[in-house]
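Here we describe the complex-level prediction in full. Unlike the single-chain runs in Section 2.1, the two entities below were treated as one system.
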Amino acid sequence: GQSLEQPSEVTAVEGAIVQINCTYQTSGFYGLSWYQQHDGGAPTFLSYNALDGLEETGRFSSFLSRSDSYGYLLLQELQMKDSASYFCAVRPLEDGGFKTIFGAGTRLFVKA
Amino acid sequence: NAGVTQTPKFQVLKTGQSMTLQCAQDMNHNSMYWYRQDPGMGLRLIYYSASEGTTDKGEVPNGYNVSRLNKREFSLRLESAAPSQTSVYFCASSDQQGGSGNQPQHFGDGTRLSIL
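The structure predicted for the assembly as a whole is:
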């Protein structure tokens, strides 16, 4: 089976850096994705790590370590608009990689 | 370019009633998905369709049926609604071909469904 664990809430100050962790138990997967969802909105794709290491997209970076069963999303220069929920997700090797399993999400509160 | 369109946006049903949620995408994507989102539980996959003409069960398929009507449209049906099916339902599409290459999922705005 597959399971992903994330902290339920994280609070940080505007302008700071915050790291949202995702630990997983899975028999094998193609890669780790991150999605953002504002209250009342739809999830939107942020980043994807197929291989171990760091992927950078503007203020956001994502990291994967398969040997540690661990990944994280790093948000720099936090802005108020970054207040949202963040979900990690994996595509298990089974079923050809079409399924996506999401974590329960981390709610980020950015304070002034 | 509308992306993924879901109808209706809100619906209230009585226990035992039936309902079909509609989803259409205009991005020529092969894969389509239905999720439900409950507080504190993230997104859970109900059914997916890897390509036109195929459908497969996800994590929580019980109580639901789906139809991939054509490449654009993927509907979700509740035959006999139960209060436990009160949730926000999201449809998504992707150009995922399977295998290691990743294509992001594009989500609709959701259907907020309450069952009394």
